[in-house]
Each structure stands twice: as structure tokens, then as C-alpha cells.
Amino acid sequence: MPSTSPGAPTAFAQILPGAPTPSLQAVATFIFRHKRHVAYISGNQLNILSSPTQLVQIITFDQALVAVSAESQTGKVVVGGKSDVYVVEPVTEGWTKVWWEKALVLRREGAGDEARYLNWGGAGEVLVGGSRQLSLFSTLPSSRTSSPAASPMTGETVEERRPLWSKVVASPVQYAAFSPSGSLIASSGAYDRLVKIWRRLSFEEGLFDYTYLPHPGTVTHLEWRPVAEHLEDRRSSGISGRHEEDSEVLYTIASDGLLRIWRTGSLHDLDILALHTTIDLVSAIPRSPTLAVDGSSHASKPARYAFVLPSDTFCAAVTAATGRQTNGAASKTSHSLEHLREVTSRTPDVVVILDGQGRMSAWGLQSIGHKRRPETPGSDDAFHIAHAEGLEIRLPVDTNARCQAWFDGSAFHVLAHGFAAEQVEWWQGDTETFFSPSAAGPERLACVAAWSGHSKSITALQTEKSGTGLLSRSEDGELACWEVNADGHLQRASGPGDVPFPESENEAEFDVDLTKSIIANPSVIVANAEVAALVSSDGRELVIVDRKDGYVEHREKFDEPVLDLRCFTTAPSHNLIAVVFHDKVHILTQGRYEHHEEVPAWLTVKKLSIAGLGPNIGALEWLGSGAMALAVGNSIMVTDSDIETAHLDDEVQQTVDLYPTQAANVRLSELSQRLKAPLPVWHPSMMVHLVRQGNPAAAAGLLHKLLENLKFWSEGDHLPPLLDQHPKDLMENKHGDESVLTEDMVRDLLEQLDEKDLPEVSDLEQKRLKKVLQALASVSEHIRGLDKCALRYLFSWRLQLLHMAEATDAKPNGTQTNGVSHPPTTPLVPKMHWREIAFAYHSTTQQPLLDILTLHYDNKLTWDTVRSLGITAWLADQEALELVFESLAQSAYRKSSPPDPANASLYFLALHKKATLLGLWRIATWHREQRATLAFLKRDFSQPEAKTAAKKNAYALMGKRRFEYAAAFFLLADDAGSAVSLLAGQCGDLMLAVAVARSYGGDDSPVVRKLLEDRLLPKAETEGDRWLMSWCHAILHQKHEAAQALVRPLEGVSRQRSWHQDDPATLVLYRDLRTPTSSEHEYQAILRSARILRRMGLWLLALEVVSQWNFYPQARPQQPSADEHTATAEVARNGLTQEAPSMLDSFAEAPAPKPASSMLQDFASPAPALDEKTAREAKAAELLKKLKAKKQEQARPAISEKKPPPTQFKEPDANSLLDSFGF
Q: Which end of the chain is more exposed for a tag (fewer CB within 10 A), N or C?
């Protein structure tokens, strides 16, 4: 078969295939490829199942179905509506894959004839009993009545068949069945008291003779005894002729309550069938409550339900039960098995009778199918096998029902189709227990499935407001209520069916402007109180947004369109999202925020598939505790909340400490909780953030404590998440000697980490922990020579260097000598983030830091190295910057062989060292451009004509795409603005543009200001890069703006709003840059940072932030007067905040800006308009009113270090911060 064959659907916890059609042939069972299948019709849908919870396929038709029949030899299924009858054939791939396809359509000749009953005969024959005719079709390929045609229901081409013959009937056919040999047909009409027997006189033509079997009441059931399994072997062996075959047996039930058994006699008998014996189904259960409901006598007998088990299958089941006991450990004799062995010695057919009210009686018919049966007295009479009360099979009184039963080894199965209940129940028990003389009723059978539902396709599912039930609605408007029982399964509730269907609450109100900025014209939007999910207009991109802060937490693209989304919350802050496609569902759960991108914030932890079933997913809804209901056609499929551990990624298994060898399954709610649980203190992210917060001593102390615990710890033991330390002690690190990581300590800890797997961290995270340990050990050597800002930079550089070295070792691209890999000659240079650059810019130990980096690269700084390290951006000293540029000029000059002065032109001219460059050109006799360049450089570029010539050369070089050399000629013409613009634009090197601008004119030059204000600041605003914004303001000597950029709300950010833009480390730099007056955005920034830290699993650091932060007072007028307008004007004139000396002196060389200064203060600007001034005064008045209200409140003791309380400011209570996060 082609590779596009249907896939394997997911195994579901419960299947509700739909409301069974209330007909006599709504359910059929058959065996194909040694596996039992159940064919089940519901509305216009044919369901094929292989177990109570395994739906193999759904086949839909264009009309309601009334009957289904199947044969086990070929696996073909015939299914009919009132007008058309179809044959579906199995298609196999390999040994396990099977599905069914429409193969034939059977067209009847009579107009207005409606199909009522279907039956398979021998050699692929199908008997169709209709309201006016009885027709016979052949499904064999060689049939003479075949012709290709297009089926009107789907437009697909299928073969059409005409009947071999048709016979008009007097009344609509209710039963029509072939005998096992195919020589007889038994038929009966609705309300008939006669069973018509058709005996074939010719198998080629429709020639019959007839006889009738009279009954005293309406015939309610008939069926032929199935042929024994060994009979086919006897037929094909040639040993025995047809005259030696066993008799054919017909069972009939009439409204008089008797089961009649009819047998064929010899060929010389006058009657085709003769009555063999009868069983009174009513008196077989003497104490049934149906016998005396009100004490009056009834003209009709009470309802009884019976099914017959052939002797060969019954004896095989008893043999299997006996073999099971023999192979088992039980040594005592089973009286039930002894009883059954005695029963099977008589090879009986077993008749099981039910009253529908919990009572059962089993009777045996001895040698009923044998041609030579014993003629002993009473051999024709039925004998009793078992009786039971208290069975859980219950049917409404005096309602129609059909039962089918079979054995599977020693297991016993019963399908009970109740017409009034509109459901099919699958009961399962043990053969020994069910036929035991003494077993209790509830022990004999257990219900393993109850199939019900809608008869039309389901269009909507919705959880009830109470959360304990489910509502479903079909396309015809039918509403069904479902409740969850004790087993966690759905069962049809008895509530009213006309309750208005509630609107979905998933479509919560969502910020339209935010939606447009993330995805234009989203096709699907769902949201709850915490998260929102959006799908792009083409349906192939999913975006998940945090509604509190607007972060885009997850973006994912798919190969097929997303049809729907559903949110679910297992607990506060534990969210799940189901992504619905045509034939599958992906379930995503929230994880932690991680700085390394290989671990997303949302993980796909479960996948559901209905591939190969047929219809697409019509609706989906979450149930309690993470279970889910899917609507597929008429069916509802329920999946449990368990996830197979083996299906999780290895990284997730290790992170949550779940392995297939320990636990096969994990609940979805538990997995979601583990993925967002607080991280242990030995997690590498904890160490990294401690260093970024300026507390490397605490990180070193944690590593000391970890080593002490690991020395006496083995895998499987409990390792305390806080290492048996108080949180305050961990953060303060009172033991000063533990802040130093000695070589012996590092070696011992690395050995422990190599030998033992730490809990709650994955293998990848444990490798990261080793690198953090090595980086911290390297940094600790310089802890006395560098300040905290420089240490943060050095730690990040060292950590990235270790990661790059590991990646290089994993894929060596150097040389090998004696099997040993040698690293490549190019040095490894990490690309430093603007976070580290901003910290390093405010360091007071920049020169020692630069010396460490320069020494590492052997005093050979190239521009690629300097650009990646950001040296020219964070060096604040102009002389140091010029020395670095001179070193870059020398390395650029020697980059090629022979040296090329053109490569160094940009650097020398940026340093205003034209003479040095001229000297290099004098000795560059090997260069083809030496003579022209030397003559050109000898000009006096203070003259306008020389500058014009330099610019012309620059434009000519731009045409040749030699942009850096062109920028050098712009510098030669003293046009630094054009040079910087060229480097930042066509050259695409912003860092080089910054370096040239700072080296050529200094930080106070208009070129630097224009570059920052026109390019870098808009870029930072658009990308939401707080670090770059703060650095730009710091370069411009705008201390207040540099601090504000780290905490103020971001505006005008592009579609990718990420939590990285609100990195908690921004608070650390803000704390160093802020003036003694707090920002109005400071409080919200602290809450935001604490939320991010908690999402990262760093609950200890979040607690530290909100509990130990010190607020400064906001600036206010010293003596507010009674005249509010005067006070407002004073505040507006003096500014809302007053600048004070910064904690850092990196801005010392710049003059102190005036209060409330603008970023463009150095440029001449017109006076503000009157409306702007009025608005500023109104805002100041409102702020003043709020400060007055705060002053009147009762002050609370602060938990930070004791200070004299400010006279005009009340510090926010830290408990209010803690309450915001549940601490």
C-alpha cells in the first residue's frame, strides 16, 4: 500500500461512538486476522472498534444507516441505509495495520424498497431484506452484475452491483438470514407469526420451495446456529460428503416466551425443519420481579433476553480456564471448574437467559447440532447449568434489547444493546465465575464500556460551570449532558435536554492593540486570566502571551493550519494549552523562563492523534484534572490526564526526576507543577543570577555547602533543596572563608559531580553547573582587584568561553597528532551582551579588566575580538580607548602579508594620526596604490578643495563597496558624520561606528550624540533593549535617563515583547544609578522582576528582591503652601525629581544636568507650549495630592536596615510586595 495510508490513532481512556441506531442490526461482531472487531452504526456513521477503548475507524455516509452485518472469513462489512447498501472491504499494511474502504454499492431494482435487514451467505453472497423485496447480491469480483459507477454520497468511484434475483414479499422483512450452508433462508415480517423457510433448488437461479414454521405469537427473534469451526476443514478434506454433515439448527423466539429449537432432518424427511425442543424463558427465572409487578395477570409474557453459545466455543473456554488453573499457583480444587468440566462432557449448546433486572439463568442443550445424537430418554430436554441474582446488567422494563456474546480464551464478553436506553454496554467476565453455581452476582460481569452519544455530528463541547460535567451539542441542535462518574468516565446524565448551551468562556477580553502588535488579523484567540494564545491569519503560527506583562512567551510554526485552541488551568499559574489540528492535538504546558534558548518557556508534553479514523476533530474541551474530550463525528473520545514518561524528552525527564524505569505514567497536573517548581539552590541558574546580582561570595558559599553535602550523599537519598541552611544565611554568606574557591575544593566538587547525578537537574544542567563552578573559580582569583561590575563582565565572558570550548571539542576542526585533537589557531571570542557592556561601562576597575582580556588574547587585539567583547563601548577613559584603537590599527596593518596600510587607515585617521599613516604608505613600496595615495595624503586637508577631493574618493570607494576605506576618506575630509553614518548603514557595523565616533571626537562630540539619538536609541526603543538604552544615556551623561530606562515601562516595542527586555538584573544596575529620589516606576519594576524570577524558578531571589529593597523618597516641595497652584508651579519649575550625586562617579567628567533635563537639552529648542506646561503642572498637582495622602497613613516598620524615617515620604511596606507573590 502507499505510504499515505492512515496512521495509528491514540489509545483513549473512553470511547463514546455515538447513539446506536435503534434497530435489530445496530451492532455486529466479527473476527479478522485473529482479532475481534465490533461494527456499530450511529446515525450516518459506521464505527469499527477492536476493544472497549480502541476505535479503529469511522466511515461516514450520506444517509442514516439502519443495519450492519459482517463476515469473519474476509472481514467485509455490509452496511445499509434505507435507499442504498454498501460493502466496505479491509485493506491491510503489514501485520498490524488495517482499515476499511468503500468498495461496492448494491442497487436494488424495486422503487420505494427500503432496506431493513442484511445477512451474509456463502461465497460472498449478501441477502438484503427490504420493505417490498428480498434481494440477493454477489460481492465476488467475477459477478456478472457488476458495473463501475460513481457513488452519489462522496463522488468517489466505486463498483455498483445489481441483484442476482429479487422476490416480492407480502410484508416488510424484519428478519432474513442464510443458514450456515447457504441452502436455506429463514425470513419473517414485522408482527408475523410464521417463519418462512426458503429452500434453494438451484444455486444459479432463484428457484425455491417453501415451508412455514408456525408460532402462537409474534416472532421476535430468529437466528441460525453458527457452523462449528472444524466443519470447514471437514468440507474441504473430501473425507465426508454433504450427507454426513451435521444438522442445521434454527432458534426462534416468539411473544409467548418460548425459545424454539428447529432442526433439519434427513433428505427423505417431508419437513424441511422439525421442532426439536423448547425452553420456557419466563419460567427459567421463577423469582424474577417482572412476574408480579402489580399482582395482576398479564395477557403478554414479561420480557426476556436470551443468547446462545455454541458448544465448541463454550468447551474451548472451559478448557482454557482449566489450563489457566493448572499453570497457576493455586493448588486447591475449584468446584466451579469441576462443575463446568462435567457440563462440557455433554458438549452442550448453552442458552443464557436474562430478565433485565439482575437475574440470569443458564441452560444446556445436549448434542443439538449432531446428526447422530444419543436417543436416551430426556436427551432432548434442556438441563440447568447455573443461576444468578444481583447481576449489574439492567434494562428498562418491557423494552427491546439485543445481546451478543463470545469467548476470548477464558474471558467471557457480552454486548447488550438497549433500544430505550440508547446505548450499548460491553460487559466482561470470567468463564469460570460467570457459570459458577455459587459466585455472587456482581462478581460475574463488569461493565467495561457504555457506548452512547449523539446520532448527528457534534459541533460544540463545553464544560459545565460547576466543572463536574460536560455539555455537547450536535448539528441538529440536540443537547446532551454528561457527568463524570467515580471511575472518571463520562456517562449520560438524566438532566433536561433543552438547556441553553453556554457560550465559551475561552474568548476572554483581550487587548486589541496588543493583539495587532503581536499578530495581524489572528484567526484564533483564546485567553484566560493569565495567558492568551493567538494563531496567525494563515493558521500556521502560534503565539502565547503573558497577559500580566505582555511578554511573548512562545512562538511556534507548524506545517499544517491550527483550527482551534483551548486553555486550561490545573492550579494558579499552571496553564495548559491544547492546539487543535485536523486529526491531532498538541498539549503544551508552561515551563520556566530560561536564558539559554534551547529550553523553551512552553513545552509540548503530550500528543493526541486520530489519524486514520476518518472524520476530523469537530470540537474539543478540557475536563477536570487535565483530561480531555474530543468530538469526532458523532463520537466523543476521552483521554485521561496521564502522560507516558517514555514519551517525554530526555531533558524534561531529567529535569523533573521522572524516568520510565521509576514511573510509567505521570499526571499532567503533576508534571505541570514539577516544571514550574522552585529550583534547588545548586541549580546553575541560581549561581549565575547570584553573580549578576553582585553576590559572587554567596554563590561560592553555596558551592561549599554543596560539596559538604555530596560527600555523604548517594543517589536516591534526599538532598535538601536549601542544603539545610536558612535562606538568609545562604544569601548573606556569613562564613567569609567560603567565598574563596580553592583549587582543591574545585577539584573535589568536580569529581563529585562526575560521579553522582544531582536531583532536579538534567544532565545538560549538571554540565552547566560544572562550567559555572570553573568560571566562578576563575573569577574568584580577581575578586580583590575588580569591582562587582567588572566581575559580572568577567564571569559572563569566562562562562561563555567554557561553553564555546566544549562545543569546539565536540566538533574538532583543528589538526590531530597521535590521535590527539588540537584546537584551531583562531582564538575563541564570546559575543558579549549589552547587559555586560553596560555593567562594565560603570566599572571603576576597567583597566585591570582590560589587562585580563588583553593578556588572554596574547596582546593581539583584532577588531573582530574587540567588537565581540564590546571593549570600545564600555571603555570610559578616552586615553585607554585611544590605546586600544592604536593596537587595532597595528593589528589591521599586519593582518595581511605584506602589510597593507589601507586596512589601518580608518583606525589611524580616527585617532587623528595622519602622519603615522603617511609614514606607513612611504614604506609600502609593494602596494600598487602607494604612489597615488602618498601624493593624495600630502595635501593640506584643512583646505576646502582637499576636503572635496577626499569626499569624491570616498564616494568612488563606496561604488566599489570598500565601505571601511571610504569611511577613512570621509574622516580625512573631517566629515565624521558621513563616516559614522556609512559604517552604521551600508557597512552594517554599529559597534565600529560607535568606536570611530568616540575615538574621533570624544563622547561629547555632536557626532556621537547624533549617532546615539538617531540610530541606537530608536533601535533600542523598538527592540525594548533596556541595557542599550541605559548605555546610550550614560554616554550622553544623562544619569537620570540612564537609570529611568532600566525601570520605566517600554513603549513602541516591536511584536516580539519578551521577558528578556525586563531582565531582573536591570534592578541591580538601577540601584547603583538611581539618585536619592526613587522613580515613580520603581515599585512596579520590583514586582515585575520578582514575577520573572519566580517564573525562572528562583523563588529565593524573588523573595530577596521584594523583602530587602530600600526605597528612596520621591522629591517634593519642602514647604507646601496652602495655595495649591503656587506649589504646583514650584514643582513644575523645579522638576518632579531632584538630581543628587550618583553612587557611581563614572559621570564625573560631564557637567551635572539641570533638573528634569531633556535628552535633547544641549540642542536649542523652543519653549514648551502652554498646553504642555499646563499638563505638566496638572500631573505634578496629582502627584502632590497622592503624596499628601500617603503621609497621613500610619507608618509601618520597615524590614530593611533601620534608618531615620524620611520627613516627607513613606516607604512602601515590604509585606505588600510579599503578598503580591504569595510569599
A: N
